[in-house]
Design a protein that fits this description.
Elements: H1 9-36, H2 43-64, H3 72-77, H4 83-115, H5 127-130, H6 132-157
Helix pairs in contact: 1-2, 2-6, 4-6
Domain Tripartite ATP-independent periplasmic transporters DctQ component: 23-153
Main location: membrane
GO molecular function: transmembrane transporter activity
Length: 163
Amino acid sequence: MSKSAPDARPERWLAALALLAVCVISLGNVVVRYATDASFAFTEEFSVFLLVVLTFAGASLASRRHAHIRIELVEDKLPLRLRPVLYVLQWAASVLLLGLVVWYGGLLAWEEYRWESLSPGLGYPSWIYIVWLPLLCLAIIWRLTQSLLERCRACREEPRHES
């Protein structure tokens, strides 16, 4: 990573740890299955949870680095002074969607906590798995906001020479 690339260190570490844990759990399960003809009961439940954490942490990191897939044709064709308007519209649509996920994910986590629901595989409280969804969506919103401010600042500071 270059020194000028924006960073999201907590999300980077979280994603790396989640990926490492998935690899260790899966490898351990394969070794035990071949050695004993039995497998660990927890691997699927933990692996799915960790893959969700990995996905959302990676999305937050990508948001900070402007690395999400988007159609840049419109951005490139707009005059420099109009690009911040497009950036704000992109940000607002993303925040609206993620805000709904935060709201409904938070409600779901609260209901799972209140009802004392247990996970089907291991019997752990379900809210422990679900609460990460709204928390990581809040992280994505934060990183999108940082990205928006950086992109708008770049439009003001660096006039682009068109050839």
